[in-house]
Each structure stands twice: as C-alpha cells, then as structure tokens.
Amino acid sequence: MKTKHTVSVNTLIVAMFLGLGGCSGMSTQDKNTAIGAGVGAIGGAVLTGGSAVGTVGGAAVGGVVGHKISK
C-alpha cells in the first residue's frame, strides 16, 4: 500500500527530471531562481507537512532568494 507521502515524492522526482530539459537556454540568474524555487517548495512542503500553502510559499521565497543571490 502506497502512502500519500510516497506518491508525492515520486511525482516530484518525475517533474524535476522533465523540467531539467528546459534549462539549457536559461541565464545563470534564471537557473538560480528556478533552483531556489524548487528547493523552497520542497522545504515549505516538509516544514508544513505537505500543505499546499506552505509549498507555494516556500517556492516563492526560494525563488526570490535564488534571484537575489545571482545579482
């Protein structure tokens, strides 16, 4: 029996691999923004127990931090 957590992790892994193909033409700042958003989404999901609001909030914060780091 699969748990809700296992299904979410598998979906995230597939989405990450599909998203990597679109990064070839991105600038360094764009890549850092995308990476920051991904890491923030994962962190937000973990900290809030998978809450959609926590995931989206983490992605937003992570994207901003990733964008600012590369300036």
Task: Write up this protein.
- With 71 residues, the chain is mostly helical.
- It has a domain at 29-71.
- It is 77% helix and 0% strand.
- It is built from three helices and no strands.
- It has helices spanning 4-20, 28-47, 52-69.
- Helix 2 (28-47) runs antiparallel to helix 3.
- It is flat, with a radius of gyration of 13 Å.
- It starts with a helix and ends with a helix.
- The model has no long low-confidence stretch (mean pLDDT 80).
Short synopsis of the structure:
By secondary structure, the chain is mainly α.
Low-confidence stretches: none
| H and E order | HHH
* Broad structural category: mainly alpha
Number of separate helices: 3
Task: Let me know the largest β-sheet.
Answer: none
Separation of termini? Answer: 47 Å
Give helix % range: over 70%
> What global shape is seen?
flat
Q: How many runs of DSSP E, i.e. beta strands?
A: 0
Radius of gyration of CA atoms, rounded to a whole number: 13 Å
Tell me the β content.
under 5%
Average pLDDT for all residues: 80
